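User: Here's a protein and a ligand (zinc ion). What would the complex look like?
Assistant: Let me lay out the input and then the predicted complex.
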Amino acid sequence: MPTRVTVWNEHRHERDHEAVAELYPDGIHGAIADALTEATDDVERPAVEVRTATLDEPEHGLTEDVLASTDVLTWWGHAAHDEVADDVVERVRERVLDGMGLVALHSAHYSKIFKALMGTSCSLKWREAAETERLWVVEPGHPIAAGVDECVEVPEAEMYGERFDVPQPDALVFTSWFEGGEVFRSGCCYRRGSGRVFYFRPGHETYPVYHQPEVRRILRNAVAWAAPGERGSVSFGNAEPREEIDESDDRSVH
Ligand code: ZN
């Protein structure tokens, strides 16, 4: 069965700024959706079904039905995090705990959903100076780094610098170096409930980052990694003992 992906985008910068619209004529969501479905010289077209959703749609395009039929949600937001309704955030959070993957992109570090799942401020340093970023693979062999050279150079990037106030990731796949001297944990894996969460840093709206083949490869890998797949069922609540228990000393009130 194909992985069902919903690509969510705030979709404001593309409509408000000509330079962004020129880079992303179909919206950032269009570029990401395109990246997720493309075949490359060495890899066939991924088995994915992609749809997009944006902030200004009813319920931000993230209805119960859409989320119920989403295996992986990718999230790009920046200027309007506050406009995302809390009940939709809670709906997304519950779906992640239930097994849906979430790929939080670039300025989604400050989105309500990412902060809710992390439980920290998710603050960082930043600077917009079209500087070079070197994205180093620090976990070779990790599926998200499959087919990616040990160092990917992003010619023009917004800088994000440490400290990045997030919990210690379960796996750190990428670390960035910036021309100005800062470093940043750019590819962080988490598990929340039954769901997998990946934070991926590159993707500032005024640079053509999502057109870069290495970045597009990483997006495809991230979606494949975050997909629920066959992970076994989880049960909670009152449990029958596997062995007979001597309950004669049980003083608890039932
Ligand atoms: Zn940015």
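Summary: Residues 3-119+185-226 form a domain with the Rossmann fold fold (CATH 3.40.50.880).
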